[in-house]
Amino acid sequence: MITMKYTVLITIAALVYTFILGGRVGMRRLKLGVDAPAISGQTEFDVAFRIHMNTIEQLVLFIPMLWIAVTVIGDIWAAAIGAVWIVGRMIYAAGYTADVNKRRPGMIITLLSTAVLTVMSLWGVVQAFLS
Amino acid sequence: MITMKYTVLITIAALVYTFILGGRVGMRRLKLGVDAPAISGQTEFDVAFRIHMNTIEQLVLFIPMLWIAVTVIGDIWAAAIGAVWIVGRMIYAAGYTADVNKRRPGMIITLLSTAVLTVMSLWGVVQAFLS
Amino acid sequence: MITMKYTVLITIAALVYTFILGGRVGMRRLKLGVDAPAISGQTEFDVAFRIHMNTIEQLVLFIPMLWIAVTVIGDIWAAAIGAVWIVGRMIYAAGYTADVNKRRPGMIITLLSTAVLTVMSLWGVVQAFLS
User: Chains meeting C at 3+ CB pairs closer than 8 A?
Assistant: First the structure.
């Protein structure tokens, strides 16, 4: 029985989106002839590889923080802030693919989402210690 | 007190197996003289590095999805599908080590396991929204 | 409402510390002119990159194991062993930055922390199966 249904849905969406970014790396390998186990070789491949890797790096911070924050701010708010994270990642991937120097706006949106979840989580911990 | 004991056991096994793949990378460093911080240099090292890294990429999708799915399909089924993931990773590592082109069957088994967990998780979310 | 407040606090600290290590990689990019999407180029950058990446590799094992172990050994003990993990990562980062060959002590402290959490988790699983 699923509780926190909105936050579960956002979690699944974040995981599926990260999976799709990984699939793009595999497709770029085939298209550009960057044979495994190489992890660089052509800029178009390298960009797809970094988009995926950077999203993994952010995902492993985001998912635990989301699930701490949900116990503090509830299902709807956690899911809303989590949705911003996914949008940030989409803007990051689109920007980075268009131009390496356009990767920052999406990155900043991602980081703001995780930062808000972190502040809310710390607020919950402070409350727990004070109560 | 541990509940969901089968799924906990599968989680521990997946984490320990991923740790072992990381240990192999360290041993290949010593054996082949690929000194840190290099992350490539010789094919035998590169293959071990990619097996570990790819397993990390899959693990961060698998573990959260497993623990969403377990609330929908219960301990035994989640653990059974999770066991397939671990077997897929073992076939992936063995295949990739033997021949770069033999990495796909294990990869597909891994992805099928995660895909089934994803579909079950989404089914649980749909039920939660309808109820 | 946060329960397990000490372990939540340690989790947040581990995530924030990993985030800081990622920020260092971005700053090294700017300082040393290692433009994205490159992931190597100068030793000072490569070392910061590996410190971050290795910490991600350890984090994805540590966080799930910490939250299995907390159900077996309780909040205070899990948090205490988790604090050792963070200290180990700090020693690892400082050692690796000073000298590539000084990365091992921090690595060993990290691994010992995760190993203790693993043994405690397995002990909990055995108890669950026997009870």
Answer: A, B
**Which ipTM score applies to this complex?**
0.96
Model's pTM, two decimal places? 0.97
Residue B87, Cβ density class (10 Å: 0-12 exposed, 13-18 middle, ≥19 buried): middle
The CA distance from C94 to A85, in Å, is 31
CB atoms within 10 A of CB C113: 24
Return the ∠ at Cα A90 (arms to C36 and B128), rounded to 5°: 140
Q: Quote the minimal CA–CA distance from C125 to chain B in Å.
A: 6
- B64 with A14: CB under 8 angstroms? no
At residue B108, does pLDDT exceed 90? Answer: yes
Residues in chain A whose Cβ is within 8 Å of chain B: 1-3, 5, 8-9, 11-12, 15-16, 18-19, 22, 35-39, 52, 56, 59-60, 63
- Give yes or no for a cis peptide into A37 (omega within 30° of 0): yes
> Is B128 in contact with A5 (CB distance < 8 Å)?
yes
DSSP, collapsed to helix, strand or coil, labels residue A88 as helix
| B51-101 pLDDT per residue, tens | 999 999 999 999 999 999 999 999 999 999 999 999 999 999 999 999 999
Q: Count of CB atoms within 10 A of residue C98's CB?
A: 11
C-alpha distance from B92 to closest chain C C-alpha (Å): 19
How far is residue B24's CA from residue C86's CA, in Å, rounded to a whole number? Answer: 24
Number of residues in chain C:
131
Other CB atoms within a 10 A radius of the CB of residue B2 amount to: 20
- Angle, vertex CA B15, rays to CA C62 and CA C102, nearest 5: 55
Answer whether A65's CB lies under 8 Å from A118's CB: yes
Shortest Cα–Cα distance, A18 to chain C (Å): 15
Record: contact C68-B18, CB cut-off 8 A? no
Q: Shortest CB distance from A47 goes to which of C3, C8, C37?
A: C37
Distance CA B3, CA B69 (A): 15
User: What domains sit in chain A, N to C, each tagged with a CATH number?
Assistant: 5-130 (1.20.120.550)
